[in-house]
Design brief:
Blueprint lengths: L2 H11 L2 H20 L4 H10 L8 H10 L15 H13 L4 H8 L10 H12 L8 H8 L3 H18 L6 H11 L1
Catalytic activity: P(1),P(4)-bis(5'-adenosyl) tetraphosphate + H2O = 2 ADP + 2 H(+)
Protein name: bis(5'-nucleosyl)-tetraphosphatase (symmetrical)
Keywords: Hydrolase, Iron, Metal-binding, Nucleotide-binding
């Protein structure tokens, strides 16, 4: 897929601030891909697609999850998690993205999962540390991402789970499995 064409589609589908976030994630993903010898093309593609469903209505997200028979547990959790799996479906069905590693990177960029590929880790981390993010500890995560992708992923999933636990909200099982994989 032509990157410039995809950017035009994203600009139409997303708010301006979300579109700018996606561009920052793509730039971060590309630079990390070079550092960690991961395909820059795959990293850019996954990063550009990662939030393609982010601005869809809750009803539309639910309809796609149900129609595509995605994990029904998703519907028991906050709808903020839904855009990853729906984005993966959109990438596959509407844009013919066939590479399972890219599809998984899109699908799991919010929850993580056990046994993530390096591309999946890269997109998860890039999304969390892109330059527009500002939360306590982000600078430490950025430094770690420059040193060791696996360690950065562990620190990022720890940050995510800790955030959710502190808010006293449910944590999706894939995130717990991911967290457990890094603790072990």
């Amino acid at each position: 897929m032509d990157v410039e064409q995809l950017k035009k589609v994203l600009q139409e589908r997303l708010t301006q601030s979300r579109y700018e976030h996606v561009l920052r994630v793509a730039e971060k993903a590309k630079s990390m891909a070079v550092r960690y010898d991961i395909s820059v093309m795959k990293a850019e593609q996954a990063a550009l697609f990662h939030d393609i469903a982010k601005c869809m209505s809750k009803t539309d997200l639910r309809d796609i999850l149900e129609r595509e028979q995605e994990d029904p547990r998703l519907l028991d959790f906050h709808h903020e998690l839904w855009h990853g799996p729906v984005g993966a479906v959109i990438a596959q069905k509407d844009f013919n993205v066939a590479d399972p590693d890219i599809v998984h990177a899109i699908r799991y960029h919010t929850t993580g999962r056990a046994e993530m590929s390096d591309l999946e880790k890269l997109i998860y981390v890039a999304d969390m540390i892109e330059p527009g993010r500002d939360f306590p500890g982000v600078e430490t995560l950025r430094e770690l991402a420059n040193e060791n992708l696996h360690a950065a992923m562990g620190a990022c999933i720890y940050q995510s789970v800790k955030y959710l636990v502190n808010k006293k909200v449910s944590v999706y099982p894939d995130s717990i499995d991911c967290y457990n994989a890094y603790i072990d």
